[in-house]
User: What shape does this take?
Amino acid sequence: MTVAGNGKAGKRVYVETYGCQMNVYDSRAIEQLMADDGYEQVNRPDQADVMLLNTCAVRDNAETRVLGRIGQLQSHKRDREVILGIVGCMAQRLGDQLAAQKKAVDLVVGTDNYRQIPGMIAQARAGAPVQVQTQADGVTTYDVAPERDPLNNSHFISITRGCDYRCTFCVVPATRGILRAKDPRQVVREAEQVARSGGVEVTLLGQNVTAYRHPDASFAQLLTDVANVSGIRRVRFLTSHPTDFPTETLQAIADNVEVCPWLHMPVQSGSDRVLRRMKRGYRRAAYMELVHQARRMLPDVTFSTDMIVGFPGETEDDFEQTLDLMREVEFDSAFTFKYSPRPQTPADRLEDDVSEEAKGERLQRLLRVQDEVWQKKSQSLLGARCEVAIEAEDHKGLGYMKGRTRNNRKVLVPRSEKLNTGDEVLVRLTGVQATTFYAEPVGMLWKYEHVGG
Assistant: This one.
């Protein structure tokens, strides 16, 4: 085998990640498993002896991108003896269909089988035909060491995998399996590792993170335990399901200053008729009552959401109810999507009877309403004072530091020799562009000192 550059022959791995934060976390788990087997991580496929694509199956375009990428990576396989593996949700869903591309793919590995990757690579190098391992066990979880430079300066910790709900549009039960909760002691150990490495913020992850249930801890208790880890100053979590927000959870957020008052609660639709067809398990009134209760208990709380337009059977009246809910809640942000059928979901059996033209037009109207809501809200906040954690230099190099408020609003602060990444500063909001505020510092709240190795 010919290896580009220096390093141990046959022991250089490149991991490319598609999809959600859970996949980012899983890629770190894969990289750690590969490192334990003697692999060095590289940043380009032309440097690698093993290329792994960690894939997403939530939408068709995510899978289309991966299929195209498989074709692009064939040049590296022609030039050198390189192993190409497809792992993650798309591998779990398609399995043997991906393996049928015998000349392109060497191994296909599902979401519960990452620990088998090193052994499968060894077998592929020994001449074994394309291998497929997608057996879901409903038990497996992963834990990883803290990142050196985490996204948004927040270390991801996965606390659940899978989901027990059966929303008719969602492919997660088919790709991630049933809900399983990581042992709370393991979660706390990961948070302690973050703190020892100098990290001060963690984000607890799961497809349905608020559904966390373990014999030794509820989600509310887990939030409290992580918040009490010495050195951790901020705890965030996503994604939440509106049916899994007992008062106990809201009280835990209220009682622990470290837990940030930002709730990402996908509503998907404002119409009860559509929510029933989606099998979301709640109705509009229950969602709104949760919003009102959260605002009563958490004065600084902000909300973000996911919405789907053009679900089978959605009428113009249904869609108008979604617009009305968006105006009523006043979300800070919304991830909006046109419905597209996904194989292995119950909705795939429904007639996709909303035209692409109507879906596109509704999506644009939804975006306009969200923009109107945010413009009004953001203007009302100008002049307010808030706490901001400095996360990084502004990537555009315009002389600003990037930061976030506790309730997840993005803020740019003028660069200063007195400010460093990790510091917490009191600011006054002076302007806003799109979803980002500009601010001037008012005073230093907390000075970050790196304590990790």
Summary: The first helix runs from residue 21 to 36. The chain has four domains: 12-133, 138-260, 294-381, 385-446.
